[in-house]
Amino acid sequence: VQLQASGGGLVQAGGSLRLSCAASGSTFSLYHMGWFRQAPGKEREFVAVISGSGTSAYYADSMKGRFTISRDNAKNTVYLQMNSLKPEDTAVYFCAARVGGVTYQLRETSYGYWGQGTLVTVSS
Predict the structure, then answer these.
(1) Contact 98, 31 (CB under 8 A)
(2) Of the candidates 41, 43, 102, 120, which lies 20 to 30 Å from 93 by C-alpha distance?
(3) What is the pLDDT of residues 20-38, one digit of tens each?
(4) CA–CA separation, 68 vs 70, rounded Å?
């Protein structure tokens, strides 16, 4: 599966952005879809993941209540709605896909497919 992330940009603290990740090349609903992010000078970290059917979703603790992951299998797209953004949310955001196993998987090495990343910058 090929992944293409989009929707990043510059936003003020407290604002919102919605990221999209379009998939092509395979049966989208077979894949658990995750979002990760990498801030400058830091390691990539887990943000959220959603099951292939869209019925289960999990979040990193710092994103709970602010971020929402969703998917539209008819459009082969996964979304990350980000609200109440903070300067510390500034990062390159990556979408990733994996097949099989439990949905809740934080380890990036478990994801076999990655998008190119989209930059989110939150100004104070």
Answers:
(1) yes
(2) 102
(3) 999 998 799 999 999 999 9
(4) 7
